[in-house]
Every structure is written in structure tokens, then in C-alpha cells.
Write a structure and sequence with these properties.
Elements: E1 33-34, E2 37-45, E3 50-57, E4 63-68, E5 74-81, H1 90-97, H2 110-117, E6 120-123, E7 126-127, E8 131-138, H3 141-156, H4 165-170, E9 173-180, E10 183-189, H5 191-199, H6 203-215, H7 237-247, E11 253-258, H8 263-275, E12 299-304, E13 311-317, H9 324-338, H10 344-351, E14 357-363, E15 370-376, H11 383-400, H12 404-420, H13 428-440, H14 454-462, H15 468-478, E16 483-491, H16 495-530, H17 535-538, E17 558-561, E18 568-571, E19 578-586, H18 595-604, H19 615-625, E20 628-636, E21 646-656, H20 660-673, H21 679-699, H22 701-711, H23 715-724, H24 726-737, H25 739-757, E22 763-768, H26 771-781, E23 804-808, E24 814-821, H27 831-852, E25 857-862, E26 867-873, H28 879-886, H29 888-893, H30 899-914, H31 919-931, H32 938-948, H33 951-956, H34 958-961, H35 964-967, E27 969-974, H36 976-980, E28 987-990
Parallel strand pairs: 4-11, 12-16, 18-22, 23-27, 23-28
Antiparallel strand pairs: 1-2, 2-3, 3-4, 5-8, 5-11, 6-8, 7-8, 9-10, 13-15, 13-16, 14-15, 17-18, 19-21, 19-22, 20-21, 24-26, 24-27, 25-26
């Protein structure tokens, strides 16, 4: 089978007439009807350069809004109001389950089939505290229609009604686990059950959950919408189905369309699906009530976790979702007083030395938004003192004033973020749909409040000097009548032992017959999971063909521009009056032993005094003039095996075009004038870094495991471990443990490193913006205040060593990584490997590790250096997963897809390569390709290889994976009891154990 791109293809999307989205469409005036949808309201959304058209489906009462704007990354979402009534996580389990087969698409995993075969730029489902959302996005309008079709059938006609084992798979079920000596232990398994065991091993999540219980004891927000593992097994299949019937009703739904759509066609399509739905449930959904103000007594919650995870949380309800301007003002206020170490309230709290770090959050997207103030690494017995100090300092700021400069800086930062509109992982249409629901879910007449911000910014700017923000602070904190305080106390109680004891009692009650029935049911579940989808069922899924793939999007040009104080590479991308500047400083000028100090240097730059400004003044200067300023280490690897590495210190800056001069002068001041003598501030920053790394190990252990696995084979990855992984964490812990005695040498080391790294012959600049803005940047930059020290290569990276390691962290689950150096065996980043990675991830691993094994996530890929890597996420076991990884070669060698299935993989792989990106991401990608010495046209080459690959090409790569058991390196992060149950010879480290 050979596939090729059709050169004469003309996309239907290209045939759209040019539309003026700044003017209302006369055909969609209020009162007009379109395919059964009545237009109730139209409204300009200047912030989107478009209009909102708000409609109601006459036959069902379903709400629909189209955000019409000139964006070809189109989106559809349908959401349901789903306020929980208990902690069973029923809505979370439903979110998973409805996507596991439906009436018109009776395959086992239509969601996964879409991941395999569509051109989606986003495909997921999301459970919130009071709603469940099903969003999709695609640049191809036909593909968006296909995605919409499958999603609507999933939520309105799911096969959970006829296949109860979907509930067992995604929610929970009993299993019998081999305990040795011919004994079997009863255990729980299920995707959501395991996911939430991992989620609620995070002290932050437990603290927030308890705060919500205290703040909202009479509403849905008292419950854990994701599900508490202690309560999940109390959910019955009957209650599961009843909950779906009452909530997945169209009168309870909110559909949002986004982008440049053939709207008449889309409305007709959706209307037909709505007309076919059953909306005859006599019982209504759970209520979503408002909580009356209350101030409960401070409380405590205990959990099994490391002692340094002790924390205190303060929660203050700040209003209702319907006052968008107030909530945005609270966000700006919170940034002004708590947004950085130099913000006045946070500085006062840090100086009190009550714990390791202070964090603040605005929790909106709720009927009653709130702010959370958290003391992390709390010292024993400080809960009351923390609350008293917080409220005392707020009262002081109300009386003495916050200061115009701080408020103006925070307002400038908020304005930059809103105008930039970079939502990261989420396409604009998905992120904006979430924002719209922040008001629409609670008031049918208020669908667009969270899409606007210009009026709120103008209002806040008028009140910078008149005490308005101080009055707001007094209202939400000092005079609050709705707040709570919770202290989380670490405990040595083993939650796993409690669960095992409970299950032992259940097993005793079941008796031999009951346990035999459990074994029979698990066997039936496995048989259902392993049964292949019928060809006629697969044929019902909508799918694009090769002819639907357009030409590769042209990469914006870049060029080197000379005549400046440093090499300058310019990216010709439309940046919408925002400039992105990146300075790249080589690190071959430092020694291997100095690399951990370089990471510390990055943590400190921009957060300490300079010779021109205090740390507080610098913080205000940055927020006022820049969108962002960050310092980090990145290592670029060349595509010649695992031998070469190019570690680099990156300074990333962004600014509105009118402030581009500041993007030149402020970073230069920071790297040339920072003073490393403030012992207290440096200790604070390093403690915060330690806490952040510990949270990452616990919550995203798969990323840490993959990075560690790569370091067994690659010099580039070994550098990454030294500056950002386990090695850096252990260095940081030791530094903090001996901070006083090492401080003087630390100060000298950082000063010397800054002088060495930030030199004239050791940098190149990347600029994304207009030529006029580039000239203004360099006119202000001059020589960038770089030292004249000559660059000397000093870095010698050690030879990587293959290891099998496990790092114990309090996670409740494990994250398993396994890999090998496959470069010499043929693991090179070609198009066939792209297809093999997608095939293994969404077929073999999905079925084996997720569906059957119960892990929340899993995947496989080959790095550009030829390292083949497998991972699992929130997994209940180690050995079973590793065994499945090591059978991947057998599966791949026998993979025999139909032509339709293979075409789907090609389409989805190419679509992933062609997905639209924001200007910052494009500039960064081009920089990384240049610094990694990628040959010109390499992306086009890989794309061409994907299009020309055959199933035989993909199968042939199985041979390279057969040596995995012999060449492997294994790394596990997770719960000690699960690690100790492994028979793999792992070197075990209790990562967070106190020194």
C-alpha cells in the first residue's frame, strides 16, 4: 500500500467567501430562524474581531452560541451542567464512559479512533466542579463536522445503556491480584479510580477539597467532582445510568461554535442530531445552589504524605460569576499584592518565615469565585499565626495604600496577557468556550461576559489613584463574611493499608463463591476488551482521506541580519503588535560541576537587586513594561546518535511593540548587574524551587521518568538531568541543607558564572516582530551590556550509564518509563517511526496499559536522537506495564491494518505536523531547529516520508524494538508500596526523605 499527497486537491475551506466578521450578518438578525435555531441575541466582540450569535433550538430548548471570527482553527463544544451530589465522581466516570461506544458508532473506543484518524487540533473531554465539557477543534471543516457527529452521538446515545462493562472499565471494578503463595487479594481497578488516587495524593488537591467543603457545605462545591477513591466504589451502575439520563439532556446543554464556519450547514447538521435525541426524562438535574455566607471555625485534615508537605489554606469567596469586571479586578489586585516575591503582601508573609512558600490563586469558572492563599511547607503550629498575619497585612495595605506603580504594573501585565491571547495547550475556540461558560452556565442572559475585557481594563485604569482597589481588598478580605481556613497535617497512616483492610473484609463477606464470581466477571471484561471491533462497525466512523490533506503550511521565512552587536536571526511572523525576543547563551564555557549552579542562576535572575534597582523596583519595572521575562537552560541535541549536546541558557522576553526598547534594556540590566548577596531572598527562591520540583515529581512523574530514562543513553538528556531533573533536585536539597555554610561560596560562584556566560562572543539573538521594531530594539540595546570575557570551552559531559531506578514519592500510583538507545538499531526520526509511535500509543498501549491495565495514560515515541521510550501515567502496577512495553515489538511486527485504518494514521500524523501555532511557538521552533543543526527542509522530509510510508515500513521497525529487554533502562516514580511489589531489580531512592 502506497499513499501520496494529491497535488491537485482544493480544500473546501479555501472556497469560503471572504467574510467581514466585524459587521453583523443581516441574515442572523434576532428573531430569525435557521434550521430550527432561533437567534435570540447578537453582540459584537471587539476582542475577537467578530460577533456572537446566541440562539435557542426550538424543539429541545438547547442553547447554542456561535463566536464568528476570522479563525480557521474552528471549534465545537457541547457542555452540560453537572453539579455533583456526592464524592463518587459519577460525572467524571461519565465523561470517560460516553466516549467508549455509541449507538451510531458502536466501536469500543470511538474517541481513540478519532485520535488515530482525524485532523483534529484538539480532542478531549473535561470534568469541572459543576459542568462537563466535550470540545473538539480542527482546521478542516469537514473534519470538524465528523468530530461533532461522533461527539454528539456519544453524549446523546452512548452505549453505556447496553454495555455495563464500560462502567467497570472506566469507573471501578473488583479484581483478584496474585499475592504469592497461591493467594489472591481483592483489589480495586478502573481508569478513573486510579487517576483520582494519583490526583488526591497531591496535598494541594486535598487542601483545596477540604477548603471547598468548609466554604460550600450546602452546595455542589463541597464534593470532589473527579471522585474520591474512598467513595468511587460506592457508585452503582444503576445510579450511574440515572445520573446520565437526568443530566445529558438538551435543555441542560450549552453548545458553542467558533471560527469561520459554513454556519447554515453546521446548524442544519446539529439540529438534525438534536431532533433525534430522547429528551423525555421526567426528573431534572441536580440543583446548582448558591451558598449563603458563613465563617466556619478553622479545621484540620490529615493525609499520608511527606512532612514537608504540611500546608495551610485560606479561602475567601469574592463575589458571583455574574460580575465579570469585579472578578477581573480581583485578579489584578491579587497579582499586585501576591503575584511575586516582591509583591507587598507576599513579601511580608515570606519574611515571617512561617513556611517554605506562599501561593495565591483565583478560582473562577464557578458560581461563586474565590481566592485561595496557601502556605506551603508550613512549620508546625503556625496555622493561626498565618491567618492573623495575612489579614493584618491586608488591613495595613488598605490603610496605607498598595501604591499606584504596583497596581499599574499588574494591570499592564493583565492587559498584555489578554491581548496576546495565547492559551497554550488549548486552541482559541476551546479556551474561549470555557470562558463563556464562566457566566453563561449560571445565567442564560449572560453568555458573553467573560469574552470581554476592554471595558474592565478602562474602568480599572480610572481607579488607580482613588482607593478603589484598597476598598476592594477591604471588602473581599478585611470585611469578608464568607471565608474558611484549613490546615493539612502530614500523617504516617498508610492509606493503602486502610484500603487493603477494607477489601479483606469485603472478600471475607463474599466467600469463595463471590470471589469466583469476581474472577468470572474480570474474565468477561477482558474478553470484551480484547475482542476486535467488527469491520462493519469501523466502517461507520467518518474519516478523511489523503485527498483531504492540503499542502504543507509554508514555514514563515527567517534570516540572519547583520550589523548589530550580536548575531541576530529574524522571524517574519505576524505578531499582532507583540514582539518576542530570545537570547541564547552557550554553556560550553562552564564545567560539568557548575551546571547545577547555572540552574540556580536562572532561578535567581530577575528576582534580586541589581546595582540600579531594588528587587521590588525591578519586579514593578518588569511587570509594567514586559509581557514576560524568564531564564532557563535548554539542551539541543544533534541528529547523530546520542553523543552530541549543546546546552544553552535562554533568556525569553516578550513585550507590546510600543515597549520594545524595554525588552532590550531590562534583560541586559538583569544579566549584567544582578547582586547575589541577599541571603534571605535567595533562600526563599531556592525553597520555592524545591517545592515546585517535588510537586512535579508527584503530579507529572511520567515526564520526570522519561527525562531520567533518556539520561541513561544521551549526553543531552544527562545535561537536562543536571539542570532540571533528579540530579538538580538532589543538589538543591543539599545546598539548602547547608545553606549558611555554603552561602559565601554560592555568591562568588554565581557572580563568576554570570560574568563568564553573558559575554559578547557567546550569544545570538532571535527576534520576532516588524523591521521597524527590530531597529528600535537594537537602538536601545547597544552592546547588551555583555562582558568582554573570551569564550573558552570547559564543558566535558560524562558518558551516560544505563540504570534501573525507582524514586519513591507520595503519589498513590506509579509512573513507569522504559527506554533504550535505538539509534544503531534503526530508531531514527523518520516518517515511519512517526506512524509507529502513533500506532503503538493509540492501539497497542491504549488497549493493554490503559484499558486492561487501568493506567490513566500511556504512550511511545522515538526522540530525535533515536531513543525509543515508553511511559505510563497514574498506573496501578510496575511489572505488568513493563511486560506490556516489552511485547510491543511482537504486536507491531504482526500489525496488519486495513487500507482505511492506515490512511487514518497517515492523515492524523500529518495533521499533527501541520497544526497551527502561535507566533511565539513558531519562532521558538525555528530557533531550536537552527540550534540543533537540523538540515533545511527536514520537517518537509519527515512529512513526505509519512505520506509515502507503507504498513510494511512501519512493521519493519518492530525489529529495532526487539532488543528492548536486553538494552533497557527503567525508571519509576511513585508510591513506595507499588515499587516494592516489583520484581525488577531497581535501585530505590526515597526522593523526598528529609536529610
Amino acid at each position: 500500500m502506497h499513499l501520496s499527497e494529491t497535488s491537485t486537491h482544493t480544500s473546501a475551506d479555501a472556497e469560503h467567501e471572504t467574510k467581514n466578521f466585524l459587521e453583523p450578518m443581516a441574515a442572523f438578525a434576532p428573531g430569525t430562524t435557521h434550521a430550527g435555531f432561533v437567534v435570540e441575541q447578537t453582540e459584537p466582540i471587539a476582542e475577537l474581531s467578530g460577533y456572537a450569535y446566541i440562539m435557542r433550538h426550538q424543539a429541545t430548548g438547547a442553547r447554542l452560541m456561535w463566536l464568528a471570527c476570522p479563525d480557521e482553527n474552528r471549534a465545537f463544544s457541547i457542555a452540560f451542567k453537572t453539579p455533583p451530589a456526592d464524592d463518587t465522581g459519577v460525572f467524571h466516570i461519565l465523561e470517560h464512559s460516553v466516549l467508549c461506544s455509541s449507538e451510531h458508532f458502536p466501536v469500543k473506543e470511538p474517541f481513540v479512533n478519532l485520535l488515530k484518524t482525524s485532523m483534529q487540533t484538539f480532542l478531549n473531554a473535561l470534568t469541572f466542579p459543576d459542568k462537563t465539557m466535550y470540545p473538539v477543534a480542527s482546521t478542516n471543516e469537514r473534519d470538524l463536522m465528523n468530530l461533532t457527529d461522533v461527539y454528539l452521538d456519544a453524549v446523546l446515545h452512548p452505549n453505556i445503556l447496553t454495555r455495563p462493562r464500560i462502567f467497570e472499565q472506566e469507573g471501578w471494578h473488583y479484581e483478584l491480584e496474585d499475592a504469592g503463595n497461591n493467594e489472591k487479594h481483592l483489589v480495586y481497578n478502573g481508569v478513573v479510580f486510579n487517576e483520582m488516587k494519583g490526583a488526591l495524593s497531591d496535598p494541594d488537591e486535598v487542601l483545596f477539597e477540604q477548603l471547598n467543603r468548609k466554604l460550600f457545605p450546602d452546595t455542589c462545591y463541597q464534593y470532589e467532582s473527579g471522585g474520591d477513591p474512598k467513595a468511587i466504589p460506592s457508585l452503582s451502575y444503576e445510579n450511574f445510568i440515572d445520573t446520565w439520563r437526568r443530566h445529558y439532556q438538551l435543555p441542560n446543554s450549552y453548545t458553542i461554535l467558533y471560527g469561520d464556519l459554513d454556519i447554515e450547514q453546521m446548524l442544519a447538521f446539529i439540529s438534525k442530531r438534536f431532533d433525534e435525541a430522547d429528551n423525555n426524562c421526567s426528573e431534572g438535574p441536580n440543583p446548582l445552589d448558591m451558598q449563603a455566607p458563613l465563617t466556619p471555625a478553622p479545621s484540620q485534615v490529615t493525609m499520608q504524605t511527606a512532612p514537608e508537605n504540611a500546608c495551610v489554606g485560606l479561602g475567601y469567596v469574592v463575589g458571583t460569576s455574574q460580575d465579570r469586571n469585579r472578578i477581573l479586578a480581583v485578579d489584578v489586585l491579587l497579582d499586585a499584592i501576591m503575584g511575586s516575591n516582591e509583591a507587598p503582601l507576599k513579601r511580608a508573609l515570606l519574611d515571617a518565615n512561617l513556611g517554605d512558600d506562599i501561593a495565591s490563586y483565583l478560582m473562577d469558572g464557578l458560581a461563586q469565585p474565590l481566592i485561595l492563599i496557601q502556605l506551603k511547607g508550613a512549620h508546625e503550629g503556625v496555622a493561626n499565626a498565618f491567618r492573623e498575619l495575612f489579614e493584618k497585612e491586608c488591613a495595613r495595605l488598605v490603610k496605607e495604600g498598595i501604591g499606584r506603580e504596583r497596581l499599574e504594573a499588574s494591570l499592564a501585565q493583565a492587559e498584555f496577557n489578554l491581548r496576546e491571547g495565547d492559551f497554550g495547550y488549548y486552541p482559541d475556540g476551546v479556551a474561549l468556550a470555557m470562558q463563556a461558560l464562566s457566566s453563561w452556565l449560571y445565567d442564560d442572559t449572560n453568555a458573553t461576559a467573560y469574552l470581554h475585557y476592554e471595558e474592565a481594563i478602562a474602568q480599572m485604569r480610572e481607579h488607580l489613584d482613588d482607593g478603589w482597589f484598597e476598598a476592594l481588598l477591604q471588602d473581599i478580605i478585611c470585611e469578608s463574611n464568607h471565608h474558611a481556613a484549613v490546615e493539612l497535617i502530614p500523617s504516617e497512616i498508610d492509606n493503602e493499608q486502610n484500603e487493603s483492610h477494607k477489601l479483606a473484609v469485603i472478600a471475607e463477606e463474599m466467600g469463595p463463591e463471590g470471589l469466583a464470581a469476581v474472577a468470572d466477571e474480570v474474565a468477561a471484561l477482558r474478553a470484551e476488551q480484547e475482542a476486535p471491533d467488527a469491520p462493519e462497525a469501523l466502517a461507520l466512523l467518518p474519516q478523511l482521506g489523503i485527498e483531504d490533506i492540503g499542502k504543507a503550511p509554508a514555514d514563515p521565512p527567517q534570516h540572519e541580519q547583520t550589523g548589530y552587536a550580536a548575531p541576530c536571526f529574524v522571524h517574519d511572523v505576524p505578531c499582532r503588535h507583540v514582539d518576542y525576543i530570545h537570547a541564547y547563551f552557550g554553556l560550553n564555557c562552564v564545567t560539568w560541576e557548575d551546571l547545577p549552579y547555572v540552574s540556580v542562576l536562572c532561578d535567581l535572575l530577575g528576582r534580586l537587586d541589581t546595582t540600579s534597582h531594588s528587587a521590588s523596583e525591578l519586579d514593578t519595572l518588569v511587570e509594567t513594561n514586559l509581557g514576560s521575562l524568564s531564564f532557563f537552560v535548554e539542551t539541543y541535541a544533534y541528529e547523530d546518535g546520542t553523543r552530541q549536546a549543546r546546552p544553552t541558557l535562554v533568556v525569553a522576553t516578550s513585550a507590546l511593540a510600543e515597549r520594545v526598547e524595554a525588552a532590550a534594556t531590562i534583560p541586559a540590566e538583569v544579566w549584567s548587574q544582578t547582586v547575589f548577596t541577599d541571603k534571605g531572598r535567595i533562600r526563599d527562591i531556592l525553597q520555592q524551587r524545591r517545592v515546585a520540583m517535588e510537586q512535579a515529581f508527584t503530579g507529572s512523574g511520567h515526564a520526570a521518568a522519561l527525562s531520567r530514562v533518556s539520561s541513561y543513553f544521551s549526553r543531552a538528556a544527562l545535561v537536562s538531568e543536571q539542570v532540571a531533573g533528579v540530579d538538580q533536585y538532589l543538589f538543591l536539597k543539599d545546598l539548602l541543607a547547608h545553606f549558611d555554610e555554603r552561602f559565601e561560596s554560592l555568591t562568588n560562584k554565581l557572580t563568576q558564572l554570570a560574568q563568564t556566560i553573558f559575554s559578547q562572543d557567546n550569544v545570538e539573538i532571535s527576534f520576532a516582530g516588524t523591521s521597524e521594531e527590530l531597529d528600535r530594539f537594537w537602538n536601545a540595546a547597544g552592546t547588551l551590556r555583555l562582558s568582554a570575557e573570551a569564550h573558552v570551552d570547559r564543558l566535558v559531559i560524562p558518558e551516560p550509564q544505563i540504570r534501573n531506578e525507582a524514586f519513591c514519592v507520595p503519589s498513590g500510583v506509579v509512573f513507569v518509563g522504559e527506554g533504550m538507545d535505538g539509534y544503531t538499531s534503526g530508531c531514527k526520526p523518520d516518517g515511519a517511526w512517526q506512524l509507529a509511535g502513533r500506532t503503538l500509543s493509540y492501539d497497542y498501549l491504549w488497549n493493554e496499559v490503559r484499558v486492561k491495565g487501568g493506567a490513566y495514560g500511556c504512550g511511545f515515541g522515538v526522540t530525535n536522537q533515536g531513543i525509543a521510550r515508553f511511559y505510563s501515567f497514574r498506573d496501578p502496577a510496575v511489572d505488568a506495564t513493563v511486560e506490556r512495553f516489552e511485547h510491543a515489538a511482537d504486536w507491531l511486527s504482526s500489525w496488519n491494518p486495513s487500507k482505511t485504518e492506515f490512511v487514518g494514521y497517515v492523515v492524523s500524523t500529518v495533521a499533527g505536523m501541520d497544526a497551527p501555532a502561535k507566533p511565539r511557538a513558531i519562532a521558538r521552533r525555528q530557533d531550536m531547529e537552527r540550534l540543533s543543526k537540523r538540515p533545511a527542509g527536514w520537517r518537509e522530509q519527515i512529512r513526505s516520508e509519512v505520506l509515502s510510508a507503507t504498513p510494511t515500513d512501519v512493521q519493519a521497525h518492530a525489529e529495532a524494538l526487539r532488543s528492548l529487554p536486553a538494552k533497557r533502562g527503567v525508571c519509576v516514580f511513585g508510591e513506595r508500596s507499588l515499587i516494592e511489589a516489583s520484581n525488577i531489580p531497581l535501585t530505590v531512592c526515597d526522593l523526598m526523605k528529609a536529610e
